[in-house]
Amino acid sequence: MEGKKVVVVGAGPVGSLAALYASSRGAVVEVYELRDDLRNLDTTPLNFTKSINLALSERGINAIRSTGNPGLLDKILERTIPMHGRMIHIRSSGGALLQQSQAYDVHGRFQRSVDRGELNKVLLDHLDSLPNVKFFFQHKMTGADFRKKKAWFEVTDKNRATPSDRPQEIEVSFDFCIGADGAHSATRHHMMKFARMDYYQTYIDCLWCEFSMPATKEGGFAMPPTYLHIWPAGKFMFIALPNLDRNFVCTLFGPVDLFTKLENGTDEELVSTFDKYFPGVTTFIPPTELVAQFKRNPHLPLINIKCSPHHFGDSVVILGDAANAMVPFYGQGMNAGLESVRVLFSKLDETPDRAEALAKYSAERTEDAHVIADLALANYIEMRSSVTSPLYKLRKYIEERLDKYVPSWGWATQYARISFSNMRYSEVIKKSKSQKRILTTLLLTATGTGVVGSVAGILLLWTRFRHQKVFGLSWSGR
Amino acid sequence: MEGKKVVVVGAGPVGSLAALYASSRGAVVEVYELRDDLRNLDTTPLNFTKSINLALSERGINAIRSTGNPGLLDKILERTIPMHGRMIHIRSSGGALLQQSQAYDVHGRFQRSVDRGELNKVLLDHLDSLPNVKFFFQHKMTGADFRKKKAWFEVTDKNRATPSDRPQEIEVSFDFCIGADGAHSATRHHMMKFARMDYYQTYIDCLWCEFSMPATKEGGFAMPPTYLHIWPAGKFMFIALPNLDRNFVCTLFGPVDLFTKLENGTDEELVSTFDKYFPGVTTFIPPTELVAQFKRNPHLPLINIKCSPHHFGDSVVILGDAANAMVPFYGQGMNAGLESVRVLFSKLDETPDRAEALAKYSAERTEDAHVIADLALANYIEMRSSVTSPLYKLRKYIEERLDKYVPSWGWATQYARISFSNMRYSEVIKKSKSQKRILTTLLLTATGTGVVGSVAGILLLWTRFRHQKVFGLSWSGR
FAD-binding domain: from which residue to which, for each copy (chains A, B) (predicted)? Predict the structure, then answer.
């Protein structure tokens, strides 16, 4: 990629990381971003269609680590808050508030809460120090010809635009274009005129609204900060992630019906709905504040996008939400996006012919992207209700004991493999399916026939399990 | 709609018909079209991404008839050529050329072959005579705000543009916008920023290339003109539709692999492939001409699009390919598009509140649109192979006899209901499923147990059928 002109569209975390990878391979990198530089803005730098606090885990960290800048990774990790598990807030049958913690991992691995803007800033500052990376903020992609390798951008930056009432449009040539411009990607839109792309988008029946839970008067966190707090309520839920300023960034998720009801109801109804379903929240977010935030902050939809391929020829590739927007319930959106940068460049490094490398990348990544999108959808059910079910807890318990006490078996929960490993998403799901079959046999046998059955089940488990290990080895050998 | 400003995007058959419907309701109509007026062009007036000859049948005719302009409908029908059935061209096991005709309908109803441009011209000429319809050709939609009811168009018409090297952009306000701008609809693209649209597009593994089969030296048709000619060849096929100039407009359909092989092969290989699979074609299209056309004419993909909803608020609706592009194998693409205009305006006429009317339209039409898109895909299999299967022929035979000789039973083939009725597509499929269950029982019984079984089967059919009739009545009463 030495000396090649690489145009990155989008200066979010995924686009910034892609620029860094391209730059370290000697490319001449230009980053075009629709919005202003978020570092120039005083208030909330991002538009309100992006969640502000995100969970950063192994895949995202590994993608940053693989740039070979330990200082950069440290700077990012310093800005994160470890979350060692979920804290489930429920009301007992007697009406008392209960808080139950569930550790994320039996080996102590954890999620990290991070402000998207903070992470983005660290990456942008780092890129600023590189001689071969240039930024063009407030440049809106208006067209692209991916055969001729040209793109057009409208300059909305008042300082750069010509003194006329009509916006200036510039033409940019490139060798390679990376579109990391989000779920409503202009790069993808123009790429679809060249690539024969299968494309699927759907809005799920769920809206979200962000809330801020302030620090206490003493300046401390309102709740223990080392957890992702969840108020599961069947069809809807409320969650809270700790932020460096000792606030919690909270989100209400619920079906469109619930939002419509709350929007049309009185302030008292909103507060009493919270008190009924999300016990304790109004102790930390005062009711007047809660109502004000619900009215002020937008109520936004959730989109699920799958497409294939993710590239066209040797000319363009789309990454992150542009290729694979998912619902936020597995905490994998940004991690998957960052990982896609690492996977892309590993293919480019391995295969000199770029068209061939992109075809390989696309084939592998679309498979993984579809898996994690489906898992994220399924996890909505888990978070808002299954977390409290005894069977769910039992399975988690057994799987974790197997993982902890018989590590040689290579057993692990799906959650751990998704969040704390770099195994391909599509392999995780294969392993989980196999484990689930085995465990279900055990649990059914145990429940159905008591002690005798349990012994038989364990024997059965053992027999099958040795088989599973063989599969496990053959998979990891891929 | 009296006095309201209606902007129609797209001046193809569907957009033109929508303009006519809006105009007859007193609207002030402006039609914006990306391309030049096809009546100004000497050569093939359409871009090469649209098939030139299409099958016009009841739904399309009914939509034109319902404008209440018998003269207009007559002008269009004069430009069509009746096709009473399929003519299947195959080679016997001995190698002889066989032509087998299959009538489309037991009641003599037929398809009509029509040049898309001719039909379009008649509609445009008619619209030209209306004082409340204005055309803006060579205007490309560049943006739209469907809340503020404004759209922007770039004027690519050299005569209208300002004398500058940069294209002029105009802002257009409207009360209601109708997007009939094809599979790659700009209206849909901008509407998706407002409506939470579920959207699905897929390219099937099939390309197509158009050929022209010239008239004979004596000026006659090379083959009987009252048929849609088909050369079914399992995974691919060749078809021919008669044109008014006594040519046949032909299309080769085949998987990408086949096209790649033919593109990379010699001229002789192309000709021998035709001779092997499409016997007789090279007698009518001389081999040199066949090769030249295959090289000159583009090899184009087929896209299948489903989306929901088809509208946003009271502001915009998308129709035809923009909402529901389908593969061409049921001959329903244009018919469904024209029908959607009729259905839309029937909802608008019934329901004074436009937002409510559009919501009703969208709910009903998306269901029907998805059904016909699926049927069109399935018919590819039927056309390229099932037409020659004995079981297919037997079923068609029995169904047609039931339709013809016991009309009171209300039996009809799916093909007849799709092509020769105005029954909702979704009801057609319900009826067909029910009929298929009954027939399968009969056929299986008959085949399995001979004469005794046949008698039993007929009795069973009779018993079930009385039941079916009840359903039939209740459905048609909807």
Answer: 5-371
Residue B301 touches partner A, C-beta closer than 8 Å: yes
Task: State how far the Cα of A313 lies from the Cα of A195, in Å rounded to an integer.
Answer: 8
Q: Distance between alpha carbon B244 and the CA centroid of its chain, in Å? A: 19
How is chain B split into domains, by residue range?
5-82+110-200+307-382, 203-300, 387-473
Residue of A nearest to B170 (CA): A166
Residue B329: both structure tokens together:
């194998």
Interatomic CA distance for residues B24 and B1, integer angstroms: 9
Reported residue count of chain A is 478
- Asked if A203 lies within 8 A of B197 by C-beta distance, the reply is yes
CA distance B137 to B33: 5
Contact A199 B196 (CB under 8 A): no
Any B CB within 8 A of A220 CB: no
Q: Are A27 and A2 in contact (CB under 8 A)?
A: yes
Is the distance from CB of B257 to CB of B299 less than 8 angstroms? no
Nearest-angstrom CA–CA distance, B291 and B272: 11
CA distance B142 to chain A (A): 9
Nearest CA among B235, B239, B262 for reference residue B252: B239
Residue A81 near residue A119, CB atoms below 8 Å: no
CA angle at A10 for the pair A7 and A14, rounded to the nearest 5°: 100
ipTM: 0.79
Q: How far apart are CA A204 and CA A377, in angstroms?
A: 9
Give the CATH number of domain A5-82+110-200+307-382; options: 3.50.50.60, 2.10.109.10, 3.40.50.970, 3.90.950.10. 3.50.50.60
Chain A neighbours among B 173-192 (CB < 8 Å)?
184, 189
In this structure, are residues A15 and A29 in contact, taking their beta carbons and an 8 Å threshold?
no
Q: Which residues contact B156 (CB under 8 A, 6 or more apart)?
A: B34, B138, B139, B140, B167
**Across the interface, which of A198, A203, A303 has its CB nearest the CB of B202?**
A198
**Chain B closest CA to A24's CA: distance in Å?**
36
Q: B299 at the A interface (CB within 8 A)? A: no
According to DSSP, residue B55 is labeled: E
- Cα B56–B62–B64 angle (5° rounding)? 80
Helical packing angle, A425-476 and A390-405, nearest 10°: 30
Note if the pTM is more than 0.90.
no
Chain A residues within an 8 Å CB radius of B187 = none
Q: Do A198 and B193 touch (CB under 8 A)?
A: no
